[in-house]
Specification:
Layout lengths: L4 H21 L7 E7 L2 H16 L4 E7 L4 H4 L9 E8 L5 E8 L4 E8 L6 H19 L6 E2 H16 L28 E11 L5 E13 L2 E10 L2 E5 L2 E15 L8 E18 L6 E3 L4 E17 L2 E12 L5 E5 L2 E6 L4 E12 L1
Parallel strand pairs: 1-2, 1-3
Antiparallel strand pairs: 3-4, 4-5, 5-6, 7-8, 7-18, 8-9, 9-11, 10-11, 11-12, 12-14, 13-16, 14-15, 15-18, 16-17
Helix pairs in contact: 2-4
Length: 365
């Protein structure tokens, strides 16, 4: 004898939850190596190496450290031999107590990202954590297929202009002559991504044997290290049920909290397993052809649900398209009923395990 649909749905939800939980809390697979060159004293080298090793482990990147006496910016932009698993190179100039300069180049040295961090209190914990955060965010952008910094030619031009301003004295200009135009300098570009995203989407959910529920979502999410936290508001299109001369329309809305862990198997795609919790407020409106039939209880019902999902994400510039599938589990069984001459009649019983598929568009802000 084959198991019923409810048993199959429960098995599907449990299997999905186990798979998502394993992906969510497992350490990410190796996604490449970075070559880190540090200029600084013993203490600076030690604290930077420890912080970067811990931070980059969250995104599956393995650093390889070298120590040098000083960092030459022109050396940064030179072509270097490619490694088979090399993702990027980091050059960290921590030779002074006033500032730390971070240079990041991709494996092909086609672009150079520069960030200078002012040290008000020396290389303290705050400065080291800030350096690790900038490095991790930049490498995550590279893994997502985004561009960081400026081109190598612009960077070399920037160095030439900076050197000319330092060495060459300003020319004497007659009062009647117009001042020469300022040279165009390609300034350092920040990582073109934000930790905050605005997300809007549509969801189709299997509600019972014959009904599909349509849902519209709008929310925000925040990415910190390797985790993504989201909060969104959702509302559904009305669902109508009829039984003889009585029936009802259901309107649901609520809020959902989610936590997920994006993985980047390629530079274009990201896998996103996640878990969520939602609270739904459902309004029950009677649609009756007989005057004696009335709703059995309050017009409103409050129902909590738990979600397990697995998504795939594709980025196009600042925008990204997300597709998600999984299942919601109603913590308690729900039945929508009406009364007719003191008799209670059930008009709808949704599944406790409800499979769904959704599509969303996200943009940073």
């Amino acid at each position: 004898m084959l198991p019923g649909p409810r048993v199959l749905l429960v098995v599907f939800f449990i299997a999905t939850s186990m798979l998502v939980g394993r992906l969510l809390f497992a350490m990410p697979p190796s996604r490449g190596d970075v070559r880190v060159v540090v200029a600084g004293d013993d203490r600076s080298f030690g604290v930077i190496a420890k912080s970067l090793t811990e931070s980059l482990s969250f995104i599956g990147v393995t650093p390889q450290f070298d120590r040098v006496a000083s960092v030459d910016p022109r050396r940064v932009a030179e072509n270097h031999p490619l490694g088979q698993t090399l993702l990027a190179r980091l050059w960290i100039d921590a030779g002074t107590d006033r500032e730390v300069t971070l240079y990041i180049t991709d494996a092909d040295t086609l672009r150079v990202f520069v960030r200078r961090i002012t040290l008000d209190l020396g290389l303290d914990t705050v400065a080291v954590e800030g350096l690790a955060f900038v490095a991790q965010s930049s490498l995550e952008a590279l893994l997502a297929g985004k561009l960081i910094g400026m081109t190598r030619d612009d960077f070399e031009h920037y160095l030439d202009v900076a050197a000319a301003r330092t060495i060459t004295p300003a020319p004497v200009v007659e009062k009647s002559a117009a001042p020469p135009p300022e040279p165009k300098v390609a300034y350092v570009a920040a990582v073109p991504s934000s930790n905050w995203h605005l997300v809007g989407g549509y969801e189709l959910q299997g509600w019972d044997r014959t009904t599909l529920r349509h849902e519209l979502d709008l929310g925000i999410d925040y990415e910190r290290r390797s985790l993504r936290f989201g909060m969104n508001l959702f509302g559904t299109l009305p669902i109508q049920f009829h039984s003889g001369d009585s029936g009802a329309s259901l309107f649901s809305g609520g809020t959902r909290l989610t936590v997920s862990r994006p993985f980047a198997p390629t530079r274009e795609l990201r896998l996103v397993p996640g878990l969520g919790f939602a609270v739904e407020l459902t309004r029950i409106r009677s649609e009756l052809s007989a005057p004696y039939a009335q709703p059995a209880s309050s017009y409103f019902a409050l129902d909590p649900t738990v979600r397990a999902a697995l998504g795939i994400e594709r980025s196009w510039g600042r925008w990204s398209l997300r597709a998600l599938c999984g299942a919601d589990f109603a913590i308690r069984s729900v039945q929508y009923v009406i009364t007719r001459e003191a008799a209670t009649e059930t008009v709808a019983t949704p599944w406790r395990v409800r499979p769904f598929v959704s599509f969303a568009v996200a943009a940073p802000f």
